[in-house]
Amino acid sequence: MKSPKVHIDVSKELFLRNPDSSELGKRIITGSIDLINELGFELFTFKKLGERIGSPESSIYRYFENKNGLLIYLVAWYWSWVDYKLAFAITNITAPKEKLKRAIDVLVQPVLVDYSILHVNETMLSEIIIKESVKAYHTKEVDDQNKKGCFSQYKYVVKRVSDIILEVNPTFEYPHMLVSTIIEGAHQQRYFADHLPALTNVKQNHDAIGDFYTEMIFKVLA
Amino acid sequence: MKSPKVHIDVSKELFLRNPDSSELGKRIITGSIDLINELGFELFTFKKLGERIGSPESSIYRYFENKNGLLIYLVAWYWSWVDYKLAFAITNITAPKEKLKRAIDVLVQPVLVDYSILHVNETMLSEIIIKESVKAYHTKEVDDQNKKGCFSQYKYVVKRVSDIILEVNPTFEYPHMLVSTIIEGAHQQRYFADHLPALTNVKQNHDAIGDFYTEMIFKVLA
DNA sequence: TCTTAAATGATAGTATTACTATTATATTTA
DNA sequence: TAAATATAATAGTAATACTATCATTTAAGA
Asked: How many domains does chain A have?
C-alpha cells in the first residue's frame, strides 16, 4: 500500500495485535523507540514502557509476546521503510551503475532527516537499528522466527539490491553476500566510530564510511 | 609470555579473580564455553553454570562481576589467541602480499582443529564468538569498559593486520575499517549461512566466505 | 439507541534472574 | 601451628518476565 500518504506495512507474524490499529498501539511504538534509545535494549522493559506511556504492562503484552518480539517488529518496520526509500530512489533510473550508486546511498548514508511517517521517528529508529538490531536475530529462536517470515523485509531489501548488482555485473557470484556485508558493515562502522574508534578510520568533515563502502562495492564488481 | 607450552594472557581488568589461577576458575571457563554454546547467551546464567560445574553461583561471582563480564573475558581470550596464531602464521614471511594472505586466512577461515590449549575448547569458543560476541560490546557500558582496556586484544589484532595492509599499499586510507569489516563480515556471513541463508551465498563443497573476503581485500587494495 | 463484543485499566501473583551477605569449612602459606 | 585465603552452603532481596482476573471504558452492529 504505497500511496502518497506513506504507510509502512509489516506482516502479521510480527505482532499479536497490530500496533498500527489503535492509539495504544501507536503509543507503544513511539514510546518504545524513545525508551530503547534512552536505556539501551537490555535495560528496556515492558514495565518501564508502561509507566512511560501510562498504560499497564499487561496491555503491552497484548500487542507483543515480549520485548524481543517488539524489537523484531521495529527492525522489520525499518527495512520495510528502507525498501520504500529504495524503490523511490531508483524509479526512472535505467543505467545500472547509477541505480546501484543510489541504492548504496540509501543503505549506507545516515538517516538525518526525520521523515516522521505517522508515529515513528525514523532518525531515532535508525540509531536503534545500528546499536541493537543484531540482537533481533542473534537468539536461540532465530530459526523458528525466520520460518515464520519475521526477517523477510530485510531479506527483500537484500534481494532488491542484489538484483541491481547482477545488472551491473551478471557473472558476479556473491551478490547477497556483498549487499549484507555492506549493510551490516556500514552499521557496525558507525557504531565503532562512536564507541570503539580504534576499529575504524574516521575523518573530520567527511563521510569516510559512505565513501569506503561505495568505493568497495564498485571495485569488487569491476 | 608465548612459550612452546602456549599460554594465553589477558589483562586483569577482565576479571575479579584470575580464572587461570585456580581449579575452580578453569572449571568456570570450560563450563561456561560448554553452557553458552548449549543454551545461547540469553538463557545462560551463573546459577545454571554453578549447577553444571558443581559449585555455588556465589563462588562464580568472585571471578566475574556478571555474565557479560565473563563474555568479555572469553572474547578477549579469543582475540589474544588469534593474535598468537597471527604472529605464528606470518613469522619469517617477508613478502607483504603473502603475509596479508596468511593473516586473512587466520581471520576468516573457520576454526576446525581443536588446539585445546589448557582448558579451552577453541573450536567451541570460536562458535561462541560468531554467535554471541557482538553482545559483548553492544551494551550501555561499552565506553567505560573500553576505557578500562577490555577490548584492547581485539584492537591489537586489527592494528596488526592494518599494518600489513599498509605494507601492501602505503597510501590506503582505511586499513582499520577494512580489517574490522572483514573480521565482522566473515563471522556474520557464517552465522547467516546457518540461520538466514537468504542473506548470503553459500556454495556446496567450497568455502565461499573465505574466497569472497580474500578476493575483496585484494581488489580494494589494488 | 440499545446491546453486545472487544479493548483497556487496575491489580495481583509467580517463577526466575541477578545479584549480596553470612558463616562454616577446607586449603594454602608463612 | 597459626593465620590468611578460598570455597561451600545457605539465605535473602529487588527486579524481571511474564500470566491471570475482573471491572470499566470504548466501539460496532442491529
From this structure: 1
